[in-house]
Amino acid sequence: MILYSYWRSTTSYRVRAALNLKRVAYSQRTVDLVTGDQRAPDYAALNPGKGVPTLQLDDGTILTQSLAIIDFLDATYPDPPMLSGDPAARARQLAVALTVATDIHPVNNLRVVGQLKSRFNATADDAQDWMCHWMAEGFAAIEDLLPDTTHEPASGATQTFAFGDTPDLADLCITAQVYNAHRWGVDLTPYPKIARIEAACLAIPEIQAAAPENQPDAPR
């Protein structure tokens, strides 16, 4: 498999973490979002959305959109699962994951911030305030969606992660987004559950290996 990604892309971070947890072998090819590699005709032919990640399977099949890629991986490599088999539990996991993937990330995307600057004369400080605002809004919602860890799950396992004792899709989306929160100075004090989840995820070698600073295209 070939994963087209960018070291600082939080959507790529999610997929790298899922691949690593499932022990799926893959190589990486860099798509530099800052220099505009994503708009090159050969890459746009692979991913019409002109974003990352893109996963090319061994048979040449192309998959795009991080949550769709992770859904494919979960169906193809079910261990460990990223989503519960219980419909209600699955819906709760997806609610958290989608709060990141559809409420926070799209309005903080590089191209959206670029439009704020080019079309509406936003300064760098304006852009940072914009991103921090939407992260705080989304994190507040997620904090309320996450269960209270003073109650153990029905299984009796200690609830270290979002919904149990192993990381799932919600945890990967949260951890990747918190990377951006640190980058742009969002105070995590109001979100202790989110902070706990990030710390637990980064203690797992497979997730730590997926972190932006550990990628081959990260600046040294």
TrEMBL record:
Broad class of enzyme this protein falls into: isomerase
Gene3D superfamilies assigned to the protein according to its UniProt record, in alphabetical order: 1.20.1050.10, Glutaredoxin (3.40.30.10)
Pfam families registered for this protein in UniProt: GST_N_3
GO cellular component: cytoplasm
Superkingdom of origin: Bacteria
UniProt cross-references to PROSITE patterns, sorted A to Z: GST_CTER (PS50405), GST_NTER (PS50404)
Stretches assigned to the GST C-terminal domain: 86-220
Listed InterPro entries: Glutathione-S-Trfase_C-like (IPR010987), Glutathione-S-Trfase_C_sf (IPR036282), Glutathione_S-Trfase (IPR040079), Glutathione_S-Trfase_N (IPR004045), GST_Zeta (IPR005955), GST_Zeta_C (IPR034330), GST_Zeta_N (IPR034333), Thioredoxin-like_sf (IPR036249)
EC numbers on record: 5.2.1.2
Keyword tags: Isomerase
GO MF, one annotated term: glutathione transferase activity
GO biological process: glutathione metabolic process; L-phenylalanine catabolic process
GST N-terminal domain residues: 1-81
Assigned protein family: Belongs to the GST superfamily. Zeta family.
Protein name stated in the entry: Maleylacetoacetate isomerase
Source organism of this protein record: Gymnodinialimonas phycosphaerae
Higher taxonomy: Bacteria, Pseudomonadati, Pseudomonadota, Alphaproteobacteria, Rhodobacterales
Gene, per the UniProt record: maiA
